[in-house]
Amino acid sequence: QSTVQSYLEGVGAGLEQLRSAAQDVQSVCQDLEAARWALLDSADGFQGLQQMRELMAEHVQLASVVQVLPQLFSVQEVFSHTLQLLRGQQLLEAHAELMMMEHLRDDILSQLHLRGLSSAQATVLSYFGGLQELNESLAKQLWDIVGSSLQLVREDPVLLVTAVRIIEREEKIDDSLLLEATFLPPGRPKGWRQKFYHVLQETITGAHFHAAHMDTEGPGLARHLTALQKVIVSELCVVKDLMVQCVPAHYNILSLCTATYHQALSSHLQDILRENLDKQALFLLLEWALRVYHSPEMMGHPDLLPEVDVSALGPLMSPELVDQTERKYVVKVKASMLEWMQRTLEVEFKEWFREEEPETDYQGFFQSALPVIVMQMLNENIQVASSITDSLQQKVYNMALEELEAFLGRLREALVHRGKEHQKDRAVPKHYISYLLAMLNNNLALGSSVSSLHPDTARREVPASLRAALDRMQKKACQLLLEELLLDLQPLCLQLPSRKWLSGSQLASSMCEVIDKYAKDFSRAREPVCTVLLAESELLVTSQYLRALMQKKMVCKSEEERGQLCDRLLQDATQLRELFCGLGLEQSQQSLEAVFALRELICLKDPALLSLEVLGFVTKYPDISDEHVSTLLDLRGDVSKDMRHMVLEMMAQNPQVLPESYRPIFSTILVPAPELPFCLRKGKCA
After folding, report:
1. What does it do (predicted)?
2. What percentage of the chain has pLDDT greater than the value 90?
């Protein structure tokens, strides 16, 4: 009961509080309503307050301007004093006053900015219009000092130090304003440190690398590069030893100057390479950029190390530019080489018309100066290129081999022309054969010297095309010599076959005399050419001898004549064979065996055995044709048509294939066409 009674009392107290609160709320609502009507009644009065607020703002602006008027009025006087200081090169004092005025201006503008008084800023700026002129005047003097810094550090480093101090003051002001980032005054940031770098770089570049009319010929360019080398080393030493003490460490002034010289040099070399340079100038540039620049004579100079290091700056000439320049150089060298080789060729053939034989070496072999001149020219150019880069050496080496191959081609053409001219008058030149032999020895000398051109012994392989050119040259000279031999043999070969020859002429002896004379000349050629000439001469003699037999000049009328023919063939072939053996040509290398085999064919007494004899002959000499065999059968004079048909049929049934090592004999011999039968007898015209 007491609990319930206590609970009821609490509820009653709560209801009483709610009733009191409701009465308070009603009272507040009535007061708010009264205030609302009061405000509505006072609206016109508030508009008057707005006008008063605007008037108050204008008053504040005027008060702010009035506060700084004494300072603004003194600005022009400070400007004049600062200008006088600048003219007197009192830079630190002038800069102090300039900073003071800029600080005053910036402080006023900042206050106006914070108060939102933008209309007053223009008025304030009009008073500080001379600041721009002072800044420009000071900057001009600073950049003049920076532009002369390399000279000033040796004569009056104080000026440079003063300039750097001013620049650093301005950098600190720029940094502080940028950090605040609330208000940036006019003309900020000035960035004078970057301007310092730029002016220094422009000074270096303009002083040495803007030569408008530079001599790009070899000697002139060499002088220019030598001057650059000296001045760059000298100025970098000044920077390293003196200038670094005048500027803060974070300027990295030595690295900056080194990079500037490097980049300016790189651009300068590119500008020079745009000109039409000769080979000497191109070589100088390559040597200077790839060898001299990094040597102890320049960027690796002991006075610059170890502080100066250009290895991190990249190459002075890019690999592409180096390759392009090397190719230009090779083209120029090729043109020069072509001119020299052509001149050498002309001089060589003028020598042919001398009254004297060509010079000989200590062994008595004919020779001329041609291979020495040509190889010396090629070798010198390759050696010069090897002092630059391996790539240039390889380019010049490849070009040299190509030019040598082309030279051999022109030499061969000149030989052909000289041979044609000689055929018109064999007395000119007087020592034609001797000079041909000298040319063969020269060709051997060239061939043996080519492999020594490349400095690297592992890369001395002679290209197949050059070996072929040497071979063609040798063959042409040998051919011209054999043509001379042929011209002297042909009148003798016209005497056979004939009955006068059968009766015992001195034809073989006369041929041996001619051959021996030429063999003595051939001995003035070096091996293996001498042996080649002997072998080719023997083949030529055999071919001409067989050709003469197959001209259908004679037909044996009796067995006795066939016997005489066989004896004469045996005597001639034996005499010729002994001659060539005596000259050093082994019997196994001779083709005169064909004459002996042909003799056996003629000497055969039983015509019925001709098929077997001819088959053996054809097997031994597979290049013989039906016409050749038919002509030989005619020479016998006793072969019937049936027998001839049987022999030719047997040849048709046994076709022959030429072995690879076989030296053709009969394929070069043309057989006269047979006379066509005519129904009327030959008689005198009426």
Report:
1. As part of the exocyst, may play a role in regulated exocytosis of insulin granules.
2. 53
Nearest CA to 212 out of 255, 166, 267, 271 is that of 271
Contact 433, 522 (CB under 8 A): no
What is the spatial distance between Cα 177 and Cα 113, in angstroms, rounded to a whole number?
A: 15
Domain ranges of the chain: 3-39+64-198, 212-313, 323-477, 495-668
Domains 323-477 and 495-668 share a fold: yes
Structure tokens at 575: 């005499």
Predicted TM-score (pTM) of this structure: 0.77
Summarised one tens digit per residue, pLDDT across range 389-400 is 999 999 999 999
Res 678 pLDDT > 50: no
**Residue 258's closest CA among 310, 312, 317?**
310
Question: What are the start-end ranges of the E strands in 501-657?
Answer: none
R_g of the chain computed on alpha carbons: 56
Is residue 672's pLDDT more than 90?
Answer: no
- Residue 590: phi and psi, rounded to 5, are -95, 150
User: What's 358-401 look like in SS3?
Assistant: CCECCCCCECCCHHHHHHHHHHHHHHHHHCCCHHHHHHHHHHHH
298-356 pLDDT, tens digit per residue, is: 999 999 988 898 888 889 999 999 999 999 999 999 999 999 999 999 999 999 998 99
Strand partners, 366: 360
| b/e map 569-590, b = 16+ CB within 10 Å | beebbeebbebbeebebeeeeb
Q: What is the dihedral of CA 81, 85, 87, 88, to 10 degrees?
A: 140
Q: Which CATH number fits domain 495-668: 3.40.50.300, 3.40.50.410, 2.10.109.10, 1.10.357.70?
A: 1.10.357.70
Cα(513)–Cα(428) distance, integer angstroms: 23
Q: How far is CA 220 from the centre of its chain?
A: 24
The C-alpha atoms of residue 157 and residue 161 are separated, in whole angstroms, by 6
To the nearest 10°, the Cα dihedral for 499, 502, 507, 508? 150
pLDDT in tens, 39-53: 777 766 666 666 777
CA distance 670 to 58: 130
Residues 272, 224 contacting (CB under 8 angstroms) = no
CATH of 323-477, one of 1.10.357.50, 3.30.420.10, 3.30.465.10, 1.10.760.10: 1.10.357.50
